[in-house]
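Example 3.2
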Amino acid sequence: MVLKYTGHTLSDDTIQKITRVAKKHDFPLDYAITLLHFEGLWGNSEVAKLNNNWGGMTWTGDPLRPSGIKVSKGTARPANEGGHYMRYASMDDFLEDWAYLLRDGGIYKVAGAKTFDEAIKGMFKVGGAKYNYAASGYDHYLKGMRARREAINQANNGGLDDLIKGVSESMAVTAKQVLNVARGLIGATKYGATHKKLINDYNKVTPRPVGYAVTYNDDWCDAFVTVVADRAGATSLIGRECGVERHKSIFKQKNIWLGLVKPQAGDIVIWRWDGNRNGFANHIGFVESISGNTITTIEGNTFKGGVSQVGRNTYPWNAQSIQGYARPKYGTSTVTPEATAKNEKKVSQHFVVTIDNLRAFQEPTATSKLVENIKKDYVKNIDVTIEAEGYLWGGWISSADGKRRYTTLKTLDGKRKFVDLKDETISHGGKIYTEYLALQDKVSDDQPVGGDTPKVGNGQVEIDGTVYDVELKEIK
C-alpha cells in the first residue's frame, strides 16, 4: 500500500524498508512513519532532497558514523542554529544510520517502546534519553507528533492504523496481560497508597487529556482504566482519559466501540446508571470473564461496604445500565471481523425508522465509524441493500454531508426489524423533515472526570452522549 499526506507519498517499497528497520530495532512502525514525515516530509523537505537526510541530522565532522554508514558534510543549517546537515549517499543509508541512533543501549530510550507515546518520550531526558532529541522540548514535540499521526491516518481513511495492525498484531499486548494488571490492583481503596500512586502515575503522563490533573478526591474509574492500560503497554489501543464520555468518543475514533454486543474478556464496558443507553456515560471498567449471560467486571471507584475501591462485580451482559462495550485490538483476542458483503443489490426503496436512534455507519459493519443516529419516524431513500453480519443493511447518500452511509434494516432471520421497508423511492415535496447537522463534532468538556452529565444549552442537542450544535434543514 501507499500513504499520502499534504501532497507527499510514501511508497510501498519505502514503507517496507521502514518496517524492516523498525522491527530490527524494536520500535513502533507508526512512530517511525510519523516522525519521518514530521522531520522530512517523507523525503520532500528541502533538507531531505538535498542531503537524503529525512531527519534533519547534524554533521559532526566525522565521515564514519557509529552505524558504519559513511556520510559527508551537507548544506548549512539555519543561521540561528549554525553548523551543517549530514549528507547521505542514499535514503537507505539514512534509514540505517537513523535507526541505529534509536537502538537498544543508544543515547535514546526508544527501542522496546510498545506505544507511539512511549517511543516519543524515550527521545527526551524525561523518558531516559541522554540528550533531548529536539530543542522544542518533550511536551511540544509529543503534541505535534500526535497531531501529525492523526492527520496522516485520517488522510488515508485509517490506512496508517491498517498498516501497523498487520505488522504489530502478533506483538501487541494481550487481553490477558491487561487483565493481570487490573487484577493486581483489586482491593486498592481510595486515599490508600496504591490509589495515590495510581493517580500520580496518571498525572505524570503529559500533556494530560483536556489539561486536567486528577486529584485524590475525584471519581477515578477512568483514571484506573487508563493507568492499567499504561502499565500493560496498551495505551495506544485505548487512548488516555479521565472522563468516561470523552473516552467513549476515543473508542469510536479508533473503531473499537461495538455498542451493546455480547462481550469478550478484556473488553471495556461503559455504564449509564439511569438506563439511558444514548445518554452521557457515567462509569467504566474491564470485563474480566463471561459465564452464560453474566459478566464479571473489574472496576475502579466501585463501592464495597461504602468504600470506593478496585473491585469485582457481576451483571447481565445486556443489563439496562450498560451502554455498550469497546474491544481493543489486542494481539490474540478475537476481534469482530469486518463485514463480508453478500447478495449486494441495487434497489429503489425507502424506509421509515421504527425505533429511536437507529445507528448508521460508514461501512456495512458495526465495527466501522458511527456517523449518525437516526430518529424514529425519519424517512430515508436507499439505493443498495447488502447482507452482512447477520443483517440486511441499507445504503444511501446522506443529504447532510453527501457521504454514503449504511444502517441495519432487519436481521436476516426476520426476527427483528428496525424500519418499515417499502418499495420505490419517495420525494419529499410538500412535506418537511428535519435533520440534525453536527456543526461542532466534539464532546463537551463539562465532564472533567467521572460521569457527570453535561449542560445542554440553547441551540444544542445531546445525541449518544455528545453535545452538538443544531441546525434544522429542510429536505424536499
